[in-house]
């Protein structure tokens, strides 16, 4: 499952000497197959075994990297199981849009380190397994969490009754959101839930419509940001593009020295959680609905659909979940995703500045609860604790 334990075979299509030189330094971990143009690459693929990933320049003789990706998928990778990275001189809106439409794995602006590219492909391969693209439960007898009958029955009944009872309140705040700022009154984002399954996560909009675009400029206010220099904190960010429900992640090049690689991976994990105190992106109505957790009400629809449960670990955005790939972090995905859980009630009861380690510990603890024989009654205990927590002054 983990390509880090063996030599990866990657194909590079292009003639950038800096890229080739970088991969030579990784020859103990990466076997690079190099071709100058798409024709040579196609001929090689037809005669040889499958590769772990493709890295292609945008500018190629005869056709560009986007065109070759179309051919590669049609002829050799119909299931799109092979990561495909595109290297460009500059990320233009046109290239990004086309890459999203073609579902290219990632786009990097040069210069970019070979280690960054190989690590990204390795992560994408691991994530595919977690998302059951390769059905690991059949090959490795991995136990996948399934919602118990009583928990699922409670979820459906509770969510349905709550939606009916709270519909007048919900409609009132929908009208308030529309009056305060333009844009849709609801917000849909891709979230990662149980077993790394991705689904559409529903909320009432509490931020201004351009909030996602301001995320990077407000990065210095992040409560979970580590005490390092700005150069050291360059990280993979999510390009906020809404296109028929499709979501893709694009990474900026990151300077990583060999001797500090392990330390930097921990820094990335610490930065996976994003939180601001007195967040300037939130509207006036947004502060109210967040304070009373009214923005969470549309998630009752997610519960009825089976995406989530009433109680569970919060489903994470893709740009957060993609950084949590070590065993101690991935345990949180072995239980149900939920509207409320241990993290919410503990955070409200103690302090708004909960560290990533504390949050991780509570998420993993709930996974143990969810898989125990007393899980249903412990869920009821968490729900009872959630009710007073909603009205506490702490803003979590």
Automatic annotation (TrEMBL):
Keywords: Membrane, Transmembrane, Transmembrane helix
Pfam families (alphabetical): Bac_transf
Positions of the Response regulatory domain: 1-125
InterPro entries, alphabetized: Bact_transf, Sig_transdc_resp-reg_receiver
Domain of life: Bacteria
Transmembrane residue ranges: 156-177
Similarity field: Belongs to the bacterial sugar transferase family.
PANTHER family: COLANIC BIOSYNTHESIS UDP-GLUCOSE LIPID CARRIER TRANSFERASE, UNDECAPRENYL-PHOSPHATE N-ACETYLGALACTOSAMINYL 1-PHOSPHATE TRANSFERASE-RELATED
Name under which the protein is recorded: Response regulator
Provenance organism: Marinifilum caeruleilacunae
């Amino acid at each position: 499952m983990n390509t880090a334990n063996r030599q990866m075979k990657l194909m590079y299509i292009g003639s950038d000497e800096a890229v080739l030189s970088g991969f030579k330094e990784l020859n103990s971990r990466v076997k690079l197959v190099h071709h100058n143009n798409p024709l040579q690459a196609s001929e090689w693929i037809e005669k040889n075994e499958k590769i772990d990933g493709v890295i292609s320049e945008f500018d190629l003789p005869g056709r560009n990297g986007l065109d070759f990706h179309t051919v590669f998928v049609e002829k050799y990778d119909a299931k799109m199981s092979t990561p495909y990275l595109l290297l460009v001189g500059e990320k233009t809106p046109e290239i990004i849009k086309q890459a999203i439409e073609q579902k290219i794995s990632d786009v990097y602006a040069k210069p970019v380190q070979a280690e960054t590219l190989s690590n990204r492909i390795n992560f994408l391969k691991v994530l595919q397994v977690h998302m059951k693209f390769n059905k690991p439960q059949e090959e490795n007898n991995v136990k996948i969490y399934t919602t118990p009958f009583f928990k699922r029955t409670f979820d459906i009944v509770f969510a349905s009754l709550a939606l009916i009872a709270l519909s007048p309140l919900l409609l009132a705040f929908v009208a308030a959101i529309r009056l305060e700022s333009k844009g849709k009154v609801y917000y849909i984002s891709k979230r990662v839930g149980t077993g790394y399954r991705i689904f559409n996560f529903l909320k009432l909009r509490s931020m201004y419509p351009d909030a996602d675009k301001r995320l990077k400029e407000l990065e210095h206010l992040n409560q979970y940001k580590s005490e390092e220099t700005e150069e050291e904190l360059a990280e993979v960010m999510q390009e906020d593009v809404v296109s028929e429900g499709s979501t893709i992640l694009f990474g900026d090049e990151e300077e990583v020295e060999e001797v500090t690689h392990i330390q930097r991976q921990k820094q990335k994990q610490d930065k996976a959680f994003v939180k601001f105190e007195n967040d300037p992106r939130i509207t006036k109505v947004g502060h109210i609905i967040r304070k009373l957790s009214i923005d969470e009400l549309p998630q009752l629809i997610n519960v009825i659909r089976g995406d989530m449960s009433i109680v569970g670990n919060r489903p994470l955005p893709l740009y957060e979940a993609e950084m949590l790939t070590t065993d101690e972090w991935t345990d949180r995905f072995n239980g149900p995703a939920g509207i409320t859980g241990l993290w919410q009630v503990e955070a409200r009861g103690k302090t708004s500045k909960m560290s990533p380690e504390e949050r991780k510990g509570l998420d993993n603890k709930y996974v143990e609860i969810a898989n125990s024989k007393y899980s249903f009654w412990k869920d009821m205990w968490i729900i009872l604790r959630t009710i007073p927590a909603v009205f506490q002054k702490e803003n979590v």
